[in-house]
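TICKET: design request
STATUS: open
ATTACHED STRUCTURE:
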């Protein structure tokens, strides 16, 4: 068996450590998951609409001060309810959310309603907030 010098041993040691470090880095990169390969980005589950736990978002078309809040409790109760959406608009509109509408919200489906007329109407979209 051939003896190696300290310098040659040191060179082999450096090459071995470098190779192991690069191999470990390559393996770590190849094990990472992202959406393109079916994994996740490590941030946990993607938020989903959930009216009963997260509540609702309301969009009022052509809004000029009207307000509507649809509570989680109202969705859970599922009873028809008529809301006054006047807010700061200076005139009154009403919108009725039926028991069937509440069932759709409980199933995390958005609903679209039209307010009563007061010279004009508003389309109102109620959707589930993300949980």
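STATUS: resolved
RESOLUTION: sequence designed for all positions
ATTACHED SEQUENCE:
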């Amino acid at each position: 068996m051939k003896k190696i010098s300290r310098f040659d041993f040191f060179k082999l040691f450096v090459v071995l450590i470098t190779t192991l470090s690069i191999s470990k880095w390559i393996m770590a990169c190849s094990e990472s998951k992202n959406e393109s390969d079916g994994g996740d980005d490590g941030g946990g589950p993607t938020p989903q609409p959930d009216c009963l736990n997260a509540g609702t978002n309301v969009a009022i078309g052509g809004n000029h001060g009207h307000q509507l809040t649809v509570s989680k409790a109202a969705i859970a109760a599922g009873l028809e309810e008529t809301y006054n959406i006047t807010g700061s608009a200076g005139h009154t509109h009403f919108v009725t959310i039926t028991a069937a509408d509440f069932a759709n919200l409980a199933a995390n489906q958005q609903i679209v309603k039209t307010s009563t007329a007061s010279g004009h109407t508003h389309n109102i979209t109620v959707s589930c907030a993300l949980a």
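CLOSING REMARK: The longest strand covers residues 123-128. The two ends are 68 Å apart (CA to CA).
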